[in-house]
Amino acid sequence: MFSKVLIANRGEIALRVIRACKELGVGTVAVHSTADADAMHVRMADESVCIGPPSGTESYLNVAAIIAACEITGAEAVHPGYGFLSENAAFVQVLEDHDIKFIGPSAEHIRMMGDKITAKETMIKLGVPCVPGSDGGVPTIEEAHRVSDEMGFPVIVKATAGGGGRGMKLALTKADLDEAFSSARLESKTAFGNDEVYIEKYLQKPRHIEVQIFGDGKGRAVHLGERDCSLQRRHQKVFEEAPGPSITPELREQIGSTCAKACADIGYSGAGTIEFLYEDGEFFFIEMNTRLQVEHPVTETIFRVDLVKQQLRVAAGEEMTFKQEELEIKGHSIEVRINAEKLPNFTPCPGKITTYHAPGGLGVRIDSALYDGYSIPPYYDSLIGKLIVSGTSRPAALARLHRALGELVIDGVETTIPLFHALLDEEDVQTGDYDIHWLEKWLDKQAEA
C-alpha cells in the first residue's frame, strides 16, 4: 500500500478520499487554491500545498503545480476524485513519466472512452448494445441529413469530446437539423476545442441506467449492479438510486455480466461506470466514465463496499477484496445532490454558511465539506453536499429521505433542498415511474403555475 497519496481535487470528494486513506493508514496531501485555504479538505489532510489562485485552470487543472506538490511532499500516488483531471489521459501520462501512480485506469483506457466515437466502436466490438447512430464523426451538414434520414427523426447531435450535457442538440424534425448541427459544433469547439460531432437516434422515453464496474487490471472485473439516474435537468443528474426501480434481477445480471466481461477483456483497472439509455427492455450504450462517479455512495450502501479503498488497493498492486458471487444487494439507497443554487432558475448562489446542521440516524449519510462560517467560493461547481439514505425497501428509503431532508439545515445561501421536498410529494417519484425527460417537464409546469 502507498505511504502517502495526494488528492488532486477539492470539496466533498477530496474529503471522501482522505477518509478512505486514513482508514487504510495512508498519509494524505491536500492541494488547494488560494480561495480554498480554509476548506475542510485542507483541514482534514495530513499536509497541504497551495497550487495557485482561485481559477480552476490555474490551480486544480495546473498539472505542473500538482507534480511539484507531489515532489515536495513525497506523495507516491494521486487520486483525482471526479471532474478536473480525473479523465485527462495526458495528466496520467505525465504522472507516469514522473514515477507517480495514478489511482485510476490507464491513459490508454481513458483515451479510448474519452472519445465518444471510439468508445462506441469499442463497445460494439465487445458485445455491448449501443444506440443506433452514425458510424463515426459527421463532418458536413449533407452527411448529417443522410445519416438522419436513414435512421429517422428525432435525432440528437453530440460532441465526440463532450460531457456534462455540453455539445448536445436535439433535432425533432428534419427542419431542426441544420440549427442543431451547427449549434452542437460551435458549443463543442468552445467547450472542448474540438468541433467533431456524431449523430444518434433520439429515444422517446428512456431511463438513464448506469452499471458500476470494477477491474483489477489483470483480466478480472466485476459489476456492482446499476443505478437509476433518470431525474435530470439539462443532462445533469439531481436524484440517483440503486437498485433501479425498473430493472429486474434477470436484466441486472444480463447487462451487468456483459459490462464486466467487456472491462475484463480490455484489462480495465479500477472503478468505471458504463452508462445506458434503457427503453422497452433494451439497453443502449451512451458513454463510459473512467472514474469514480458523484453518485457512487448509493452503490457502496447497497453492496457494503468501499469503492475508494478498492481503488487504492488495486492501484497499489493489491487484489480486489471481493468476487462477483460475493456481491449481494441489500436494501435500497437514494442520493440527492444539494447545490448552492437559487430556485427556480438554478442560479449559482455562493456565500457564507451561517448555520449548518447535518441529519443523522440509521441509514443516513451526508458527504459534504460544509461547516458553520464556511464561505462557498464562486469559482467552482455549485455542488455543496450529497444526502444519501438507505432502507430495507424503496418506500423505506423514500420515507427516510423525507425525514433526513427535514433535519438538514443550511442557512446563509439558497439551496436546492426545497426541490427535493416538492419531488417527494409527486406520485411518479413515489412509484419510480419517470424517464430522463420527466423532471424538465415537471419544472416547466411549476414555472407555468
Describe the structure.
This protein has helices at 11-23, 40-44, 63-73, 89-97, 107-114, 116-125, 141-151, 177-192, 249-265, 296-303, 307-315, 394-407, 417-423, 427-431, 438-448; strands at 4-7, 27-33, 47-52, 77-79, 101-102, 155-163, 166-171, 197-201, 207-216, 221-233, 236-242, 269-279, 282-289, 332-339, 341-342, 347-348, 351-352, 355-357, 364-368, 375-376, 383-391, 409-411. By secondary structure, the protein is an alpha+beta fold. The protein has three domains: 4-103, Rossmann fold (3-Layer(aba) Sandwich), CATH 3.40.50.20; 132-201, ATP-grasp fold, A domain (Dna Ligase, domain 1), CATH 3.30.1490.20; 207-448, 2-Layer Sandwich (D-amino Acid Aminotransferase, Chain A, domain 1), CATH 3.30.470. The protein has an eight-stranded antiparallel sheet, with helices on both faces. Helix 4 packs antiparallel against helix 5. It is globular, with a radius of gyration of 21 Å. The model has no long low-confidence stretch (mean pLDDT 95).
